[in-house]
């Protein structure tokens, strides 16, 4: 597919895009991942501190996928139809999401009841999605097709770096800065401080991108305004989203199954890895056991380790994808992640968990870049934002299924065994690796 089909702002240049331009347009993901990283590493433990049982955890995480299902297509459509000479197309949404997310991060660790934490998670996830969804389209807007692997890999680099710091921060505050332990069974001071730092990082990183990267107006502003007028209103916007879903490109439909299996695997890990390490590896009996906080903090360090691998591996990912193709690269990376999650079940030395996270980090680096590289080659002009939002369906639908049904699986089939849930995540990831090989990517049709 030619570059002209990549989106309304796509451009062809004779020279590669400046490194620092790609750096600036991607830097906001450092802050966005700070928000996600703190959430993934700490929310299950926060819920258990507030009295939740293991089989109740999936339902309490429902906010994450459901807000994405609702918010991302809407924000994608709106950002496709937005243009301001001063603020551009995507950047207004970056700013709104950054303000709301930072406020929610400050409030979250001060939750005094389970219902309060669950409600704040809905607000936090909706706010993060407002900022995050346009970032995918932002790179596709500003880079020609042959440079998008560089752009999405740079996003992966910042995602990895942000997650390293966010995930490991409670452990660092305890072991490097000597923050005292909190009363048993309460949300630790290290978690509260980490969320405050995350609020500042989220806002600062996103605003850096807003102020350092300018967007170009649509090539035909008059035609853009006509399309905007024709799609004005809630019903017109809904009809356009539905029409886009019906006309979904074949590559996108094939990637749907890959994404659903991948994110089922990741969701199993995020739901139960931290508490599985606390109970199965550190041997904590409940949240009042001092080993519980130690285990959760070490699990956060493990999340930081896989994010560090993501950060480093992202530097090499464009070259690997160029040599092997995006499909084969993604399949191999997903198999590495499956092996990493499966190995956790036989580890009892906490230090060895860091080795397992190498495979997870490789899989995560590919997951946040390669599917978008494959997808961006197949999208029609002017629809990048809405299709990126629709693509998120294949992330959030399996997460919704897991949120609604995995509690029953935990209670009935797995006997509330947190470690078994982590291994199940590895199985889903291996299935995704096989499915990606059947994806037909336009730019690799002859490969």
Structure, described:
The chain has one domain: MFS general substrate transporter like domains (Growth Hormone, Chain: A), CATH 1.20.1250.20. The longest helix has 35 residues, at 290-324. The model is unreliable at 1-14 (pLDDT under 50). Helix 2 (28-49) crosses helix 7, helix 4 packs parallel to helix 6 (114-142) and helix 13 (326-343) runs antiparallel to helix 15. It starts with 18 loop residues before the first helix and ends in a 12-residue tail after the last helix. The protein has helices spanning 19-26, 28-49, 57-60, 63-80, 91-107, 114-142, 148-175, 189-212, 221-230, 234-246, 250-281, 290-324, 326-343, 353-367, 370-376, 384-391, 393-413, 418-435. The chain is mostly helical. The chain is globular and about 65 Å long.
Descriptive terms for the model:
mainly alpha; 73% helix; 447 residues; disordered N terminus; 18 helices; Growth Hormone, Chain: A
Summarize the structure.
The chain has 447 residues and is an all-alpha fold.
Element string (H = helix, E = strand): HHHHHHHHHHHHHHHHHH
Looking at the structure, the CATH topology is Growth Hormone, Chain: A
Which CATH class applies here?
A: Mainly Alpha
Task: Provide the β-strand percentage band.
Answer: under 5%
- Report low-confidence residues grouped into runs of 5 or more: 1-14
What's the count of strands? 0
Give the overall form.
globular
CATH homology superfamily name? MFS general substrate transporter like domains
The number of domains is: 1
Through-space gap between termini: 14 Å
Rg from alpha-carbon coordinates? 21 Å
Task: Report helical residue fraction.
Answer: over 70%
Number of helices: 18
Overall mean pLDDT: 84
